[in-house]
Amino acid sequence: HPVYKAPTGNTLHAKSWQTEAPLRMLLNNLDAEVAEIPEELVVYGGIGQAARNRESLEKIIEVLLELDEHHSLLVQSGKPVGVVRTHPEAPRVLIANSNLVPEWATWEHFDELKERGLMMYGQMTAGSWIYIGTQGILQGTYETFVSCGQKHFNSDLRHKLLVTGGLGGMGGAQPLAATMAGATFLGVDIDPTRIEKRLETRYIDKMTHSYEEAIQWVMEAKEKGEAVSVGLVGDIGDVLERLIQDNITPDVLTDQTSAHDPVNGYIPNGLSLEEAAKLRKENPEEYKALSLKSMARHVEFMLELQQRGSITFDYGNNLREFARQGGCENAFNFPGFTPAYIRPLFCEGKGPFRWAALSGDPEDIYVTDQALREAFPENTHLIKWLDEAKEKIAFQGLPSRICWLGMGEREKAGLIFNELVRTGKVKAPIVIGRDHLDCGSVASPNRETESMLDGSDAVSDWPLLNLMSNTAGGATWVSFHHGGGVGMGFSQHAGQVILADGTDRAEACIRRVLYNDPAMGIFRHADAGYDIAKKVGDDNDMLI
Amino acid sequence: HPVYKAPTGNTLHAKSWQTEAPLRMLLNNLDAEVAEIPEELVVYGGIGQAARNRESLEKIIEVLLELDEHHSLLVQSGKPVGVVRTHPEAPRVLIANSNLVPEWATWEHFDELKERGLMMYGQMTAGSWIYIGTQGILQGTYETFVSCGQKHFNSDLRHKLLVTGGLGGMGGAQPLAATMAGATFLGVDIDPTRIEKRLETRYIDKMTHSYEEAIQWVMEAKEKGEAVSVGLVGDIGDVLERLIQDNITPDVLTDQTSAHDPVNGYIPNGLSLEEAAKLRKENPEEYKALSLKSMARHVEFMLELQQRGSITFDYGNNLREFARQGGCENAFNFPGFTPAYIRPLFCEGKGPFRWAALSGDPEDIYVTDQALREAFPENTHLIKWLDEAKEKIAFQGLPSRICWLGMGEREKAGLIFNELVRTGKVKAPIVIGRDHLDCGSVASPNRETESMLDGSDAVSDWPLLNLMSNTAGGATWVSFHHGGGVGMGFSQHAGQVILADGTDRAEACIRRVLYNDPAMGIFRHADAGYDIAKKVGDDNDMLI
Ligand SMILES: NC(=O)c1ccc[n+]([C@@H]2O[C@H](COP(=O)([O-])OP(=O)(O)OC[C@H]3O[C@@H](n4cnc5c(N)ncnc54)[C@H](O)[C@@H]3O)[C@@H](O)[C@H]2O)c1
Ligand SMILES: NC(=O)c1ccc[n+]([C@@H]2O[C@H](COP(=O)([O-])OP(=O)(O)OC[C@H]3O[C@@H](n4cnc5c(N)ncnc54)[C@H](O)[C@@H]3O)[C@@H](O)[C@H]2O)c1
């Protein structure tokens, strides 16, 4: 199979940076350093793809190479389906992935359509061409663990043991985030190759197939207050059962197995990877039933450990929902991470702001890091993060950075980056995007919009307004997805990426889009009755 | 309660026509001549509203009066929730109504949110401010009946009896459409005030409470080949039962009761309007159960008449689905109107193109009528329609017109209208919009996308791409709704309205939007494998 790599440097292959940028980011999503299974066009999150198939990918590239600034490409679940008439301040690519009319919005119907070549799963940033490898999730995970430490452990995670399942594309960020936050870490994955990948990229410190060895390592480290991370090969349910038997209670307990997809993601208890692959193919219904049962068992153990004192939360993979379906009635007795740790940030318009250097030169990212340090000297949390990130994060594919910025800050940062390009301080344009998991871009009642103050968890007018605002504001590409991290039926969300190419056009678009995007978070949370959001909105004279 | 009326004439109240236009069209939607229940802000389709409540309506008006061309208003289920930064070629209003994350996309959850003031039902053109009264649906209904006549009756509906239920906001177009197409018509509605309204506007010829009288009138007219329309007060199920007993088999049989909403729409068999209103309030669950049972009974009679030879089709109210839920297993044994009669039109990019004269002067519409006659001299079907419409249609609210135009034709018509404004041939700008029921703007597996050739009925990437294309192209307002004519969970669809104010900006926007909008229909149907769409796409060099 072909090897995908984004072009680097300052030479255009497409007609302008507006089309060169999506081209490079699409290929970067499929770079073997970035994607989990590039040969299947799978970027992350189980089956999250960047394009529907080889033919579609080639066609997208072909169209992007020819597209001018008066047209936009339409991508329907990873397939290019048309070109429409637009203008230079409109997005160059319009993307809709995995969307199904609600009554048919099930894995069963989706799989049928996928089987017939009519759909692909877009996850969040996979199908919207702004996944930047495990580091992308690192900051969010780090923010969550730090926030958890602030809330429950007096801001100090030393001598604390954090246990979790799943070390895949996103879950693989957990060990490094945990050790950066000061904790001792035990992560369990049934697939050894996933843990090996984390070893290679220095996201995890040690790996073993032996439960005893893993426990010895982590208990010793916890005792000494060492921020060490250990990856253990095994079924997470089995390992939690052992912990309970051995009377070991983690201080913090969560999970990032691919529970959102009970057929193509989660591995049922008792099956080897090979057995799972076989059963999945031969009898997906039985597979699903086993999966739900295993998740129920898995969550029962989590609830028991919560009883014993573990700070337990769901990390956005919809595990509780499927455990409930599998027979665990109290599955929702522990909270999701958003209401527990993230919503206060959302109320300030904060979210996972990220950018990539199209030059391919890491130095460009260090220049942007430095510019942010100078622009936000009072933000010590940010500066600590930028320092640690520079030291500990190995870039994958195009060099990139992520940090959570709020209302006002995103626009300011975007304008700074555009100036860096204009004045030649970086070697090529920069793209600025974000995860769909943001303050005003998603409706997901088991995750980002769980337990909203006014009960509006399921109202998905908001991500649609976000899509419209960013399209009307002039993002460089926009997307709308269904499913994502929590799976079919459970979320709808919008994405955007905007180009800083140093032009006046880019400046105008940045002023609009990087205002609108966090503003949606303020509007959404103010409308739901959150005081912080109302205050930020009032302070910025934004509310009508 | 206040009386709503759109301002008319050539004087601006808002800062530009770009905001004056949505303001006038919003008020026009609520004009007592147009709306079914203006005091509840209900425009049509049972509970389809233009704004969430009085307060929201006033706030929308207030913002529109002040909004400039660098900002856009966000409307979330009829409530104004923010203003974002945009530009002169972007939509001035961005609307999302009734959207729910699929797993929660039920009437039960919606009603709960509505009860708490968090939602409203947008139907299609109610919440997107381009409903133009019963005449809006007239052309679509006429096209359907004519197409049915072509297919089954050698293009001649004289001496043919058409029977249907429901003479409400949309269903009230059926009698006039039927008689314009040459048929004899019997329509049944349980609510006499609905039939009286059709008498007043001359959409129906006669009304009675007596089954015997109605039958005498229509059998006589059918015999003589007279295109007479009769409205009978009663339950449609009861009337069909009598027809079967009396051995009267309609030639054509359909239905437009508000079956899409089993609680707030359909009246269960055996209940008076008052009893229904009481039960709905006191025990909505029992109401729903009765409704589903009544619909099952209703459809059983339709199936029996189909057996006896009636050409029977579902007219887009989701009656079959709820009848199925009510216990009628074979409910889907008769087809929906789209695959039966409308899809061939969709494959040519044809759909319900409509426009309104903001001047309020009927003469402006006659000028546009004449301009179209001259622009499309070879289209005799269109010219016949324009002639009949001028003669038979009483305007409601702002004068308006509708006709189905296809790929290329819509752009041509839009540019002509913009020229008429520029050269002062009409007295004020014109707005051009459409129903959400269009070739590339809706996913609705029981209606517009029923039985797609490739099985992609439920794929809603398409209306989302339509929304993005029209937002990026520069429509004056855009909208995305869930629910609509088939109810919660069963459809997602996009709307657009574009202003022709005689400016160069409008011309540029029209060239883009009125290309993109029908192009979506070509892309969608070509991708699904329809030869006509592929041919139109190839002929216009549109496919990639
Ligand atoms: N912030 C968030 O809300 C957030 C962030 C990241 C990921 N997620 C969610 O977390 C999940 C994981 O994402 P990902 O991209 O890492 O997926 P992935 O498919 O790349 O990785 C999942 C991993 O779980 C492992 N696994 C499956 N079943 C297991 C079992 N029974 N025991 C042990 N390991 C098992 C797999 O081997 C795999 O390595 C997804 O559901 C994703 O949506 C949520
Ligand atoms: N082209 C299309 O697909 C299309 C077009 C128009 C309307 N519709 C659908 O048709 C339905 C009607 O739309 P509307 O705007 O006229 O709704 P409406 O609520 O204004 O009118 C519905 C009418 O049905 C009557 N009714 C209800 N139950 C009855 C019963 N048991 N017997 C006799 N009459 C009964 C009501 O009294 C009312 O007058 C909706 O479901 C709408 O979505 C579809």
List the helices and strands and how they pair.
2 copies of one chain form a homodimer.
Chain A lengths: L16 H13 L12 E3 L3 E2 L4 H13 L4 E6 L2 E7 L7 E5 L9 H9 L18 H19 L8 E5 L8 H7 L3 E6 L2 H9 L5 E3 L2 H14 L4 E5 L2 H10 L6 E2 L19 H10 L1 H24 L3 E2 L6 H7 L11 H10 L4 E7 L4 H14 L4 H13 L7 E6 L3 H14 L7 E5 L7 E2 L17 H13 L3 E6 L9 E9 L3 H24 L3 H9 L5
Parallel strand pairs in A: 3-5, 5-16, 6-7, 6-10, 7-9, 8-9, 10-11
Antiparallel strand pairs in A: 1-2, 3-4, 12-13, 12-14, 14-17, 15-17, 16-17
The structure holds nicotinamide-adenine-dinucleotide (NAD) (2 copies).
Question: Concise description?
Answer:
Two copies of one chain form a homodimer. With 544 residues, the first copy, chain A, is of the alpha/beta class. Chain A has 18 helices and 17 strands.
Task: Walk me through this protein's architecture.
2 copies of one chain form a homodimer. With 544 residues, the first copy, chain A, is an alpha/beta fold. Chain A has 2 domains: 1-131 and 339-544, Urocanase superfamily (Urocanase fold, 3-Layer(aba) Sandwich); 134-335, 3-Layer(aba) Sandwich (Rossmann fold). In chain A, 43% of the residues lie in helices and 15% in strands. The mean pLDDT of chain A is 96. Chains A and B meet through β3, β4, β5, α3 and α16 of A and β3, β4, β5, α3 and α16 of B. The complex binds nicotinamide-adenine-dinucleotide (2 copies). The site of one nicotinamide-adenine-dinucleotide has 34 residues of chain A, from α4 and β7. One nicotinamide-adenine-dinucleotide binds next to α4 and β7 of chain A.
